[in-house]
Amino acid sequence: MRFLGFLIGFFCMFVFLARAEEQRQNFEGFTLDGYTQNGEKSWDVKGDTAEIMGNNISLTNVDANSYGKEQVNLKAQSGTLDNSSGSMHLEKDVVITTQTGSQLKTDELNWQREKDLVTTDKKVTLTREQLIANALGAIAHPNLQTAQMNEDVTVKVDTDPKTPGVQQVTITCDGPLEVDQVKQVAVFNNNVLAIQDDRELRADRLEMHFDSATSQIKEMVCIGNVSVKQGGNITYSERAVYRAGEQRMTLSGKPKLILQIQGDQPFAPLGN
Question: Where are the beta strands (DSSP E) in 129-175?
């Protein structure tokens, strides 16, 4: 009887595995398209190979596009597509490239189509005109018009578009960094440090505004525990506004200036 029970159990397991194998389908040169209710193409996904198991489709060499006001391309070495929702989990060399040339790179990404968001908790690099940002974790719209870099943010901004990579401001903050390309602003939060040549600026918050025509820095607004150091001179205030066109900084909120008088002479404080 025990032997008969063993045979019946083995047979049932064999039938289950056989049925599961029948449900699993493998393809090469896979393409899947998505459309709006009006019949307009909204997205497509391509892969060199595809393994279909229920609603989940595992792909290799993923090449996906999202269509709308701006086309967005997304590539990765591998990914899993939920066919019912259109959402994807992507891994290895994940790259989002927008029609305007902005780019986001990471090793792992979730594309939530219903929320129109891409998210990752891995190291990420965001590149746009004259700005390269590195951070740990990000939340963004696929078109990268708005993006949040979560933690340990480092940004390099070109101050002269004619010589990219030569004259730069390096800015770090604990995060988050919020980038809005529509409003042409980048907002750095918590323990902000900006360095250019021998100048060093610190603040709780830094709002960097760009010129929409040239993409150059137009204005920087520093808020909270602001200090500006150049050589031996240091200024303190609660708020500082730098206007690039005028090359002028205005301090407000109990401003204080400490000057290096001569050589090793003590600093002389001025202000309130």
Answer: 131-140, 146-158, 168-173
